[in-house]
């Protein structure tokens, strides 16, 4: 029997990395031994105190039942203390924080809570593909705002203000930005809040990358005066604490907005596993030494990835923040897809084509830092060997 697919999925395909991982798995099963530099899933373990807290909690007989939809008071308190300590933002743990099963889940909750047919939502181009997906599934009209190297990968707020914003209800923003690694400063975030206030737009700020390779103190949009009236912020322990598979995130903002999102979320899950919550409390209590050691590893890895991209003739921008390196492809390739395909076929290394993040990313590729140094050294050696062989072949062809 053919079952018609709901119209809400008419424009939403399977997530790119879901399809690509199947392809890479098939290649590896055939003996290709692909090095995957595509996905930002931290390969490093959590701090030992975090796994110890998980194990200790899981050993308790009472720990395995359903949990409250708002998380434990201890977890919300730890999240509030984390925001105060690192961002200087005071949040009421009882009403202004909603723990999530990952911030990706929160994006869907926010979209389904506030968006419907007839509404419009602003999403970045390039940007995280899930932004478009959640907007489409909600039934809202997707309106892209351009981010380009010429504007420093920041939106032109004046151009947006001059456009018809009458039906725009939400604007999704993400700084430090993925995929470009751009960090926004306080001056820009202040202008962003003023823009939202002037046009009655709810800002949804996705903020999971501020602690990775950031040479300045991490920023929260909620620290900007007036932001709480027009903004909510998503955050995550996936990257900052190596807990990607544990699914621990949070939604922060004004109490009435958080309570409204809870109306939707409470119908979607039955709470977070208690041992994970108690382990997250331990993670959130980690001090600056944790981040220093984490970034020391990523700094060394970034040097290897930069060498690999430059061996391909790519041009990485300076000052990038986060788990990736974003780089312009050389003129010999039509776009990032062409370079990605060539490197996969020739060097058995996978780089993410920038076009999956939007049309403004087509001339770029993105490489992840989430592989051990030994693997990155092997990837660099493969790329150099392939490029040298390609250049030698081209030289022979010219002289033949």
TrEMBL record:
<dbReference type="InterPro" id="IPR015421">
    <property type="entry name" value="PyrdxlP-dep_Trfase_major"/>
</dbReference>
<protein>
    <recommendedName>
        <fullName>Aminotransferase</fullName>
        <ecNumber>2.6.1.-</ecNumber>
    </recommendedName>
</protein>
<dbReference type="InterPro" id="IPR050881">
    <property type="entry name" value="LL-DAP_aminotransferase"/>
</dbReference>
<feature type="domain" description="Aminotransferase class I/classII large">
    <location>
        <begin position="33"/>
        <end position="380"/>
    </location>
</feature>
<keyword id="KW-0032">Aminotransferase</keyword>
<dbReference type="InterPro" id="IPR015424">
    <property type="entry name" value="PyrdxlP-dep_Trfase"/>
</dbReference>
<dbReference type="InterPro" id="IPR015422">
    <property type="entry name" value="PyrdxlP-dep_Trfase_small"/>
</dbReference>
<dbReference type="InterPro" id="IPR004839">
    <property type="entry name" value="Aminotransferase_I/II_large"/>
</dbReference>
<dbReference type="InterPro" id="IPR004838">
    <property type="entry name" value="NHTrfase_class1_PyrdxlP-BS"/>
</dbReference>
<dbReference type="GO" id="GO:0008483">
    <property type="term" value="F:transaminase activity"/>
</dbReference>
<keyword id="KW-0808">Transferase</keyword>
<comment type="similarity">
    <text>Belongs to the class-I pyridoxal-phosphate-dependent aminotransferase family.</text>
</comment>
<dbReference type="Pfam" id="PF00155">
    <property type="entry name" value="Aminotran_1_2"/>
</dbReference>
